[in-house]
Amino acid sequence: MISDALRAAICSGDIAPGTPLKQDEIAAEFSVSHTPVREALKVLVSEGLATLHHNRGCFVSDLSSTVARELMEFRALLEPRLAGWAIDRLTERDIEHARLIMAKIDNTDNATQRLQLATEFHTVIYARANRPFFLEQVSRARNNLNRYWRLAWGDQTFPASTQHEHQKILDLCVAKDQVGVTAFIEQHIMTSGEVVLRYLQRLEADQMAQL
Q: Which structural domains are found in the chain, ordered by start?
């Protein structure tokens, strides 16, 4: 789908914030009419990845610390609930799958791949909650936030604490500690998010100083 391809390019940073999403160019690239392009852009706007400006067209949404904080708070509200609902349904195969994903994170230096794998790690756990609507909303928020993490981390690897926290989440799941895992996932989301927020706030302060 066109929306999938554009989403991947935006979230990976291949299409930068503020870039115009021109219907003519997209239609030519995918060899389609304007109708499916307009539908794809509507999807991206609904996900917060694109913004429609009256009489100017559609653009990749800019990054801001305000939006980043709201996305992280949204995740911190929903994801612990998903984990709590899922924990008693997790199978040994799910746990092994999560461990395999963690090993893959350790074995790649590619920032985009690490972010994708981190999303897979959490999804393996949350999928057992059997709440597809919740899972879809979390997926949208994570896709949007991945743009922020890539900017803040650049080509760096995950902070070591992130993988330690993934292991802690997995240990709590194995122990069937519902209270522990819900509390820790909320902490995990907000702690990792503070790295992004501090970076964006410094960036915004520098931009204001140049005005």
A: 2-60 (1.10.10.10), 65-210 (1.20.120.530)
